[in-house]
What does this fold into?
Amino acid sequence: MSAHWVFHNLWISSFKSLVPKGEASSSPEYRICFEQKLFQFPNLQISQSQNPLMISPIAFYILSAVIIGCALLVVSVRNIFHAGLFLIGAFLGVAGIYVSLQNFFLAAAQLLIYSGAIAVLILFGIMMTEAHWSREAPTHNTLRSLSFAAAAGLLGILAFAYIRTPVTFLSSHRGDVLRGIGASLMRAYMIPFEIISLILLAALIGAIAIAKEDKRA
Amino acid sequence: MITVTHYVVLSGIVFAIGAYGALTRRNAISVLMSIELMFNAANLSFVAFSYRWKEASFISGQLFPLFVIAVAASEVAVGLALVLALYRTRRIVNLDEANQMSG
It folds into this structure.
């Protein structure tokens, strides 16, 4: 009972420094979003927050064009090494999107980990297994049209769900995101933090064990 | 005016592109790359939705992509180790030909 109380207070205290004082769930945005009927045509009811995050449309559209273009090229080019390079382009675009959402730490982590380690690892894997690449071999298997229909259907359902919900403007971020991440990792999210280190250790040992050459004659 | 919906639709588009690539490509590493695209799309969606409500879920939305990045890194490491082991024993990179459990 007391341990539960301690964790509960740690959970609450790690968030209290972020919520501005005097803000309750009777804010206009909260009330508008909950009192509306759920299914309405888009853009008829727009709920505004007090000070929305002003994102430059040019930056957002350029970054989204980079991400979508590089993603389309990743799944369609014939040379798989080029596909790996376009994947790096997509990661850079996503890091730019994180910057536009004022989460600078996540942008830096994305650049370091995704484009700096994961993409390089993928390129190493491509180079170590590329003996059988040929110019005439098909790059896609036989499920091409069916999976295109499935992906398009998935996108249709997602876009329908996203556009039909009431449109809200991005509200400005509360305080320093990095300080909140650090505080949460040490208080409310301590257990996932430790478990992530265990996952990384297990993946490290597992990858070495799987890829190790069997030297027994 | 750029709203949450713009970011989330972008995330959906990238997720659908990644799903198409994961289902269609023959090379195993191409499938891994498409899965990484899907991870990125989900992370985008997390961060975008964290701005939607004035509640304590804000920091959860900003923090969870960090965990997703760590798990994706370990998954790529193990996946590439599997591809390398497969390539070493059978000289196969395409998933169509890797259809036997033993041999």
